[in-house]
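Incident log, support desk, overnight shift.

02:14 A customer reports that sequence design results differ from what the structure should imply. Their input is reproduced verbatim below. On-call engineer (initials T.W.) acknowledged and began investigating.
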């Protein structure tokens, strides 16, 4: 997941009140007999805010990927074919989370996170424009993405890394300029981003750089907080 939360400060005084936000999701599915790629669903979300005077504005975007290992198994497609044959990003999660010999989640992960499904929701990218930071919109966008697409998943995963320090940064300088990310060291930016995702409810997986959220534990936590019944 690539986003620099910075201090998430709101710079436009007076615009904090009466801001409503939503996410407009786009997901495409092929109409054909299922092949391996049809169980991997890229998700694009446009984060939109609306105020009384300014109307609708795009505040940022979120990208995710739903990997339906369980459903693929129902169609006779081995988890290894999705985990190690679709993309390098999925392969990285596959190697860290799954037992490559059995095709199942590693026993220690199943036990610690009380995983009930092998489906994964990957949070890949989150960015907010400067004027919309500090309102909790980024956190809400992540939680809403999980609510909509994570109901059948065992884990939500991400790998926090500041956008300005990725290998793609050189080719998106205009976008980075528009985001006005703070001029701080890579280590400081990474530490802040990891703290950000930890606050949302993700836990680090040893020293892999991967962060996990158990959906079964999330449901239990929300019930304790009275958010669901």
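02:41 Re-run completed on a clean worker. Output:
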């Amino acid at each position: 997941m690539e986003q620099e939360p910075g201090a998430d400060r709101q710079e436009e005084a007076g615009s904090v009140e009466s801001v409503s936000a939503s996410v407009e999701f786009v997901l495409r599915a092929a109409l054909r007999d299922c092949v391996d790629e049809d169980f991997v669903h890229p998700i694009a979300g446009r984060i939109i805010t609306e105020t009384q005077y300014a109307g609708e504005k795009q505040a940022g975007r979120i990208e995710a990927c739903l990997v339906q290992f369980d459903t693929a198994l129902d169609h006779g497609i081995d988890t290894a074919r999705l985990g190690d044959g679709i993309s390098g990003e999925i392969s990285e999660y596959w190697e860290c989370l799954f037992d490559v010999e059995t095709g199942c989640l590693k026993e220690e992960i199943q036990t610690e996170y009380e995983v009930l499904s092998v489906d994964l929701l990957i949070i890949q990218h989150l960015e907010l424009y400067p004027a919309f930071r500090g309102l909790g919109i980024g956190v809400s966008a992540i939680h809403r993405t999980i609510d909509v697409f994570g109901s059948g998943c065992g884990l939500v995963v991400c790998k926090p890394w500041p956008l300005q320090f990725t290998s793609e940064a050189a080719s998106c300088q205009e976008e980075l300029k528009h985001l006005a990310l703070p001029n701080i060291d890579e280590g400081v930016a990474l530490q802040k981003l990891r703290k950000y995702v930890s606050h949302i409810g993700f836990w680090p997986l040893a020293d892999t750089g991967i962060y996990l959220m158990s959906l079964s534990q999330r449901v239990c936590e929300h019930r304790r907080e009275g958010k669901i019944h």
